[in-house]
Amino acid sequence: MTTSPLVTMRGIRKSFGPVEVLHGVDFTVEAGEVHVLAGENGAGKSTLINVLCGVFDDFAGELQVFGRPERFAGPLDAARAGIATIHQELSLVPSMSVSDNLFLGRETTGQYGTVDFSFQESEAARVLSEMGLEIAPGRLVEELPIASQQLLEIARALARDARVIIFDEPTSALSEHEVEFLFGRIRELRSRGRGIVYITHKMEEIYLLADRITVLRDGRLVGSATREELPPSELVRWMVGRELAEEQAADRTLSDDPALEVSDLRVAHPELWDRFLVDGVSFTLRSGEIVGLAGLQGSGTSDLLHALFGALGGRVSGDVRLHGQPFEIKDPLDSVEHGLVLLTNDRKALGLAPEMEVVHNASLASLVRFCGFLGWVRREQEHDAVEHLTREFNLSAPSLHAPVRTLSGGNQQKVYLARCLLTEPSVLLLDEPTRGVDVGAKADIYRLMRDWVAHGISILLITSEMEELLLLSDRILVMYRGRIAAEFDRAEASKDGVLAAAMGHANTGAPGEAT
Amino acid sequence: MRKPWREQLSRWWAMPVTRALLAFLLMLAIGCLFNADGAFFRWSVHRDTMRQVSVYGILACGMTVVIITAGIDLSVSSLLALAAVLFAWFTLPHGWPAILAIPLVFLAGTVLGSVSGALVAQLGIQPFIVTLAMMVFARGLAKVISGGQKVTNYVTDTDGSTRLIEHPPIYEMIDSRILGGNISIVTIVFLLCVLVTSTVLAHLRLGRHIYAVGGNKEGARLSGVPVKRTLIAAYALSGFFSAVAGICQAAQETHGDPETGMAYELDAIAMVVIGGTTLAGGKGSVVLTLIGVLTIGYLQKILSLNAAPEATRLMLTGAIIICAVWFQRGRKSARSKPK
C-alpha cells in the first residue's frame, strides 16, 4: 500500500554564514512508518529537522509536504500545515491549565469573542482519553510529572491534527516504564497512518521502534535502510565512517599516585526521586593522567563532573578521595580551594561575565592570590599573571582590558580556561573544552592540555568529538544511563567500540566492566 | 584604511564615560544658553546645585552597587527617613552625643540593608519585591519611633511640660559650608561616598564579585564566588549609604521627619541609569553615576532658574531620562544585533 510519501526532501543544502552544514540531503517520511534519523553529534540531524519544521527558510533544495512544494515561513506555519515537533525542551506554558495549553494559539471563541472554556475542556478531555492519558484538563501543567508533560505535548500535536510528528530525543527525561508508555502511543500513531520521525542516540530505541533508519554524517546522507537490512554493527560503521588517523602515539609513563578516587558516586535526579543521573560510578584518576569520559546526551557525564565539583548540592552521595585524603564535596568555593576546578560546557551561561574585562574574567576564581588587606586587589600583580598566562595561550584580544564579549569564541574559551588555570589546580574537570572553537585554537588547547599533564595536573575530560577523545585520553570511560558501561585503554580504544558502548550496545570488546 | 585618530575617536565614543560626559556638557551648554539673565554664571548657583543633589547622590552610590548586581533597591528613601528620625530622636529628645548617635544610625541602616540582601540571596525572592517590602516596613518603623510626628527640638518632658532645646552643634556643622563658604559639607560627604564606592568597586575583591554576580550569577558561583555573601554586602552597603543620606537630611531640615524623602529612590535610580549603568547588571561604575547625578541636578536647576512651572519640570525630566538612556545605548544595541 505504498502511496506517495507525506514528506519528501531532496538535495537539501543549508549554510550558516559561509559554512555549509548540510550538503544535499534526501529524506522522506511515509505514512504509517517510524523513521529514525541517526548520526553523531553535529552530523546535521537537528538542522535537517529545523528545515522540515520551518525554523529555517533559507535552504536550497526541494521540500514537498503532502505532495505540494512548501517553504514554511516559521514553525507556526509548519504546525498549521500538519507538522508537529516535540522537542527536548518542552514548549508548554507551565502556569496554564492542560486544556488551555492544548488550545494555545487557536483558542475557540464564543459569541462575544470570549474564549469558550467549557468547549475547550470537553474537547481536551476527549483528546486525552483518546490517547489513554488520565489527566484532568483543568490541572496546571506545572503540577504534572515531566513524562505527562511530554505526552501532553504529543496530545497537543494530535489536537492540531498533525500528520507528521517529529520526536527529538524524547526519552532523555523519562523513566523506563514511561518510555514504554510513550512507545505504545507512538506505535498507535503509526497504525493510524501518521508519519513519525524519531531522533535518538540510543541503539536500543532504534531497534525497538524503527521501520526505517536514515544515517547522516558530517552533513551528508550515508544511507537509508529498513531495520532488517541494517544490523547494529553496520549502523555504527555508518555513523562513524572514516577511520581515525593515529596521531601522537607516544606512550607516556604515568605515575601510580592517585589524584582523584571516586567510589560509588550517585547523583539523584532533581525531580524524579527514584531516578539517578549518575548511578554508582567508581574510578580512579592518577596524577598526570587524562581520563576521557564518553557518553551520549543524558548519559550522566556532565552531571558527574558537576557533582564532583560540588555544584549540585545535596543530591550527591558517594566517597571521594583527593590525593589520598578523604574529600567531602561541599561547594564550588571549597573545591577551588582544594585544587579541583570545573570548566563547564557552556561558557556563556555558566562561565564568563560578558561585560567584564578580560583580566577580571580570567582572575575571578583566583582573586584570593592577588589580595591583600581587606581584599584589596593588587592589580599589577594580577595583570602580570593574566598577561603571562594569556601569552602562553596565544590569546588574541583587542586589549586585556576589553570586555570579554568583544573577543571571538575561541579566545573567550581561552579566557575561560585561563580562569581555571590561574587557580593552580591539581585536578581539572573539563567539559567540552573545545566547544565552538576554531581549528587553530583547538590545536592550542590540545598543546596546553598536554603541557599541563606533564606538570602533574590530572584531567577528567568530556568531549563529544570522538577524534579529540581518542587523541587526548590515556584512558576512556564510557558512560551509559548513569553507569560506567565500558573502559578502554589508549591502545585498545576504537571509535566503533566507544560509540557502541555509549549507545548501550556493550558486546563490542569492553573489558573493565564496572557496576 | 582608517586613520589612527579616527580609530581613537571611535574608541572614545564607544566608552560610556564619554557619552555620559557629553550628555552632561550638553546640559551645561543648555544652561549657558538659558542662563536666566546671567544667573547661571554665578558660582553660588553651582554651589547650591551641588548641595541640592548631594543627598540624592549619596543614595545613588548605594543604588549603583545594587544595580550592578542586577538588583534594585527601592527601600533607600524609607531607610533615609528612618535614619533621619533615629538621628533626631537620639540627639534631640535623648540628647545623646553625635559620636554615639551617628554610628548607631549607620548600624541600623546597614543591618536593615543586609536583611534585604539576605532575603534576596537566601530565599531567592526578586529584589524588586524584597526592597518594596523593606520600603514599606522601614517607613512604618520610622513612624513608630517618631510617633508619627516630626522629631524636633521641641521636647516633651516626663511631667508633660514642653520646652525648646538647643540643637547640638552637629546639625550646624553638617549644614555649613567650608573653603570660604564655597562648598557645602554635604557635598563633601557625597564626594566621599563616591570615593568609597569607587574604591570598593574598582579595588576590592568584593567589587569584582559584585560585577561577576551581576554579569553571570551562575558563572560566578561555579568559579567559587560566594554569591550570597556578595549580595548581602551589596544591599548592606546601600543601607549604609541611606543612613548617611538620612543624617544629612535631618541636619539640613533640623528635625527628623518620618515623611521625608518620599520617592527619592526613583530619582536615585534615574541618576544611576542616566549615567550609563544598565539595570541588566554586570557593568557600570560610580563615576558614571556621579555624572548622572550632576546631569539631573543641573537639569532641575536650569528649569527652576528659568522659572519653569512644576508640571513642565516633571514632564521634561521624564522625557530627558528617556533621551539620555537612549543616547547611552544607541550604538551598542546596533552593534550587538548580528546574533
Task: Describe this entry's structure for a reader.
In chain A, 32% of the residues lie in helices and 24% in strands. Chain A is built from 17 helices and 20 strands. Chain A has helices at residues 45-52, 75-81, 98-102, 117-130, 146-159, 176-191, 203-209, 232-240, 301-309, 332-337, 347-350, 358-363, 379-392, 409-421, 439-454, 466-472, 495-502; strands spanning 7-16, 19-29, 33-38, 59-65, 68-69, 83-86, 164-168, 195-199, 212-217, 220-226, 258-268, 276-286, 290-294, 316-322, 325-326, 340-343, 427-431, 458-462, 475-480, 483-489. In chain A, a hairpin with a 2-residue loop joins strand 1 (7-16) and strand 2 (19-29). Chain B contains 14 helices and four strands. In chain B, strands 1-2 form a two-stranded antiparallel ribbon. Chain B has a two-stranded antiparallel sheet with strand order 3-4. In chain B, helix 3 packs across helix 12. The A-B interface holds A 309, 311, 332-333, 335-337, 342, 344, 349-356, 360, 363-365, 367-368, 371, 374-377, 379, 403, 419, 423 and B 203-206, 208-209, 211-212, 214-216, 218-226, 282-283.
How big is the Rg of chain B? 21 Å
Helical/strand content category of chain B: mainly alpha
- Which oligomerization state do the chains in this entry correspond to? heterodimer
Termini Cα gap of chain B: 26 Å
**CATH architectural label of chain B:** Orthogonal Bundle
Write the layout of secondary structure elements.
The complex is a heterodimer of chains A (515) and B (339).
Chain A: E1 7-16, E2 19-29, E3 33-38, H1 45-52, E4 59-65, E5 68-69, H2 75-81, E6 83-86, H3 98-102, H4 117-130, H5 146-159, E7 164-168, H6 176-191, E8 195-199, H7 203-209, E9 212-217, E10 220-226, H8 232-240, E11 258-268, E12 276-286, E13 290-294, H9 301-309, E14 316-322, E15 325-326, H10 332-337, E16 340-343, H11 347-350, H12 358-363, H13 379-392, H14 409-421, E17 427-431, H15 439-454, E18 458-462, H16 466-472, E19 475-480, E20 483-489, H17 495-502
Parallel strand pairs in A: 3-8, 3-9, 6-7, 7-8, 13-18, 13-19, 16-17, 17-18
Antiparallel strand pairs in A: 1-2, 1-4, 4-5, 9-10, 11-12, 11-14, 14-15, 19-20
Helix pairs in contact in A: 8-17
Chain B: H1 4-14, H2 16-33, H3 43-68, H4 76-91, H5 98-123, H6 127-146, E1 154-156, E2 162-164, H7 169-174, E3 177-178, E4 183-184, H8 185-203, H9 205-215, H10 217-221, H11 227-253, H12 264-275, H13 286-305, H14 310-335
Antiparallel strand pairs in B: 1-2, 3-4
Helix pairs in contact in B: 2-13, 3-8, 3-9, 3-11, 3-12, 3-13, 4-5, 4-6, 4-11, 5-6, 5-11, 8-9, 9-11, 12-13, 12-14
